[in-house]
């Protein structure tokens, strides 16, 4: 049965410290984190970047903030509170990815690590549309899309006793959603996820009027 987005928000509020402990142990040389280097290489020196689904700020927002003007958003109030503590160089707010309410064409890049996969599948086009609206023409998007189609939950995620939900279209469906929103998908790669299993990432570029 499809979950409600607020189920995910409440779950991340409850497991804020447990999730931070898991992500704090992430090796910066791990396959998924290493993808940030190519993403950053496409951006201008004074890039403004959005971390969509920033969690507690580690490791993605923390790494991005060393090289960019970083804004982070997360659905979970508790995650945002910890991100503000962990990454004082960034600016963070609580927001819904389907309607972020930020100024359009304000970002050179957007990262969305392990976040869109929690949004119900029928709302993924809304998220893609928001990302497209927020990026400047020619801006870059790096996001997790999952390695296979699956919708379900784990009632004891990370051994916390808290139920977590996922909605993951197939990689082909995710690519189609991005293309329909106005992105050129440059590549997709399946890499190891340090919390278990493989996951797929996509790098895409917002088409500008000259493309």
Largest sheet: 7 strands, mixed
Based on CA atoms alone, the radius of gyration comes out at 16 Å
Read across the widest sheet, the strand sequence of neighbours is: 3-2-1-4-5-9-8
Helix run count: 7
Q: Give the DSSP E fraction (strand runs of 2 or more residues).
A: 25-35%
H and E string: HHHEHEHEEHEEEHEE
**Secondary-structure content class:** alpha/beta
* Poorly predicted tracts of residues: none
Q: Indicate the mean pLDDT.
A: 91
Helix content: 25-40%
- In total, the number of strands is 9
The backbone outline, from C-alpha atoms, is: globular
Distance between the termini: 41 Å
Task: Tell me what the structure shows.
With 211 residues, this protein is an alpha/beta fold. The protein contains seven helices and nine strands; from the N terminus they run αααβαβαββαβββαββ. The N and C termini lie far apart (41 Å). A seven-stranded mixed sheet has the order 3-2-1-4-5-9-8, with helices on both faces. Strands 6-7 form a two-stranded antiparallel sheet. Strand 1, helix 4 (60-65) and strand 2 form a beta-alpha-beta unit.
Describe the structure using short key phrases:
7-stranded mixed sheet, single chain, 9 strands, globular, 211 residues, 32% helix, two-stranded antiparallel sheet, 28% strand, alpha/beta
Offer a quick outline of the entry:
With 211 residues, this protein is of the alpha/beta class. The protein has helices at residues 5-14, 16-24, 31-41, 60-65, 77-86, 124-134, 171-181, and strands at 48-52, 69-74, 91-94, 107-112, 135-144, 150-154, 164-168, 183-192, 198-206.
